[in-house]
């Protein structure tokens, strides 16, 4: 049972990192777009 929880936690951690990177890219694109078109 604890092995399953550990695997799930590791999976969530990896996906959180991916989501954070994607959000940073989206934010940078958004800032660039606003900067460029204002």
From TrEMBL:
<dbReference type="Pfam" id="PF10968">
    <property type="entry name" value="DUF2770"/>
</dbReference>
<keyword id="KW-1133">Transmembrane helix</keyword>
<keyword id="KW-0472">Membrane</keyword>
<protein>
    <submittedName>
        <fullName>DUF2770 family protein</fullName>
    </submittedName>
</protein>
<feature type="transmembrane region" description="Helical">
    <location>
        <begin position="16"/>
        <end position="35"/>
    </location>
</feature>
<keyword id="KW-0812">Transmembrane</keyword>
<dbReference type="InterPro" id="IPR024494">
    <property type="entry name" value="DUF2770"/>
</dbReference>
